[in-house]
Amino acid sequence: xxxxxxxxxxxxxxxxxxxxxxxxxxxxxxxxxxxxxxxxxxxxxxxxxxxxxxxxxxxxxxxxxxxxxxxxxxxxxxxxxxxxxxxxxxxxxxxxxxxxxxxxxxxxxxxxxxxxxxxxxxxxxxxxxxxxxxxxxxxxxxxxxxxxxxxxxxxxxxxxxxxxxxxxxxxxxxxxx
Length: 177
What we know:
Helix content: 25-40%
CATH superfamily: HAD superfamily/HAD-like
Distance between the termini: 20 Å
CATH class: Alpha Beta
Mean pLDDT: 96
Strand content: 15-25%
CATH architecture: 3-Layer(aba) Sandwich
Low-confidence stretches: none
Shape: globular
Structural class: alpha/beta
């Protein structure tokens, strides 16, 4: 039997997106995040899929990203919330770090992170949800037939899918479906 997952973008969904967030002092959880994630039924895997162009652009290292990720996961664990995996894409075509300056299949709107999770967790992507705050998140979901919800705190002019003002409302929509 295949598994289900809820994919979450990081910046703009889990934490306030200040642009290239890579330090604990700059990482601010949205106030509803812990309540929202505590509502997710246990049959769902919870997986973060995040583009991290700042690594390719030399703004921070992969080691710094992992330090912040470990801290974030610890905060979730302290609240009794399990994040099954964090996938990240360190690539960008305009990067300054040679090994990360490239076209890849993992940077959303490409589907590499979703397909890797599908393989790693035996997922039925048609039974999964992707919650993101940018059109590229939604496009990645659509390409894999994953259901999508756009977190739209600013009334963006993207009308082709389900919208929610915050993660708590997005999880409520999933629970009602």
